[in-house]
Design brief:
By secondary structure, this protein is mainly α. It is rod-shaped, with a radius of gyration of 23 Å.
């Protein structure tokens, strides 16, 4: 009887440990996915900036819509991770500052594209 109880106890401890490690691995995977989304978000905003420099406003608008959608989806996940949330916020502020900077003049150059301006305003709110 003791042998059966010992085996059952070992199985329970083993299952508990494997669940713990699986949960830790899942959590780490989610963090890595968020960090990847952060990288794509920053690359997307840099792509928008490149399109604006080349005066490809329609392409900039499409790329900004994709980037805004990624940002919205990532915000829900980032709420659980303050470090990643702060990183998203820093990237967002950086590009909002560039958008509004008179030296770059992006806001004025895109004045004929209200949808593009509206997308940037969503990010810069």
């Amino acid at each position: 009887m003791r042998i059966i109880l010992s085996i059952a106890l070992l199985l329970l401890v083993g299952l508990g440990l494997s669940s713990f490690f699986a949960f830790s691995k899942l959590k780490q995977t989610k963090i890595e996915a968020l960090e990847h989304n952060l990288y794509i978000f920053e690359r997307g905003l840099e792509d928008v900036r490149t399109c604006l420099d080349a005066e490809e406003f329609e392409l900039a608008q499409l790329r900004l819509q994709e980037t805004t959608q990624l940002w919205k989806e990532s915000q829900q996940l980032a709420k659980r991770n303050p470090t990643v949330q702060r990183s998203f916020e820093a990237v967002r502020k950086k590009y909002c500052k560039i958008w509004n900077d008179p030296e770059w003049n992006y806001r004025y150059r895109a004045s004929n594209y209200p949808a593009l301006q509206k997308e940037f305003e969503k990010i810069c709110e």
